[in-house]
Amino acid sequence: MDVLLVLAVDVSLSISEARFDLERRGYAEAFADPRVLRAIGDGAAGRIGVALFDWAGPGEQRVAVDWMIVGSAEDAALFAARLAGVPRPFYGRTAIGSALGFAADLLARAPFRTERTVIDISGDGTGNAGRSITDARDAAVTAGITINGIVVLTDPDGMPSFLKEHTNPPGGLTAYYREHVIGGEGAFVMSAESFDAFGRAIIAKLIREIS
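Below the sequence we write its predicted structure tokens.
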């Protein structure tokens, strides 16, 4: 196994149904992309371990696709089929720290072993509930885990007033993730200019993480 990768998908209140559908499609199609499959095949083992869970508020984390091996187009199709069969579970607040803790626990119980372990967390807003983000991040990094982020940027004019600062914090959401969320060796954060661009960003991100 070249890497164990946990995909932590934000399904909090600011994620509309249309955005949720774009998230689901983005992750499903990314693993079937020839460039992603090529990156997996170029690894020493030629396969990776993947799990995906949805998260929102404290205590709102649910595995959508449990640990499986992805090393071929057939594996990617199975991943997509499993993901497509799981409905949205939450509409809660945004507990980033709680999601990071859940992801670290998910890695600890993985049935596969490798030296590289990565949490890939997506989000469109700042943390507003749950465990301290920095405490959860630092604990994961101490355990040897790398945390990468992908943020979806939102036009504040299209959001309700009570969500504007949540999705557009001072300095921007990318800077917020860089300061508070990501960590570990080679950690990075990528931005998608919109949910429509999310799928393209996920492909680029997976290639970078796998390679």
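The two ends are 13 Å apart (CA to CA).
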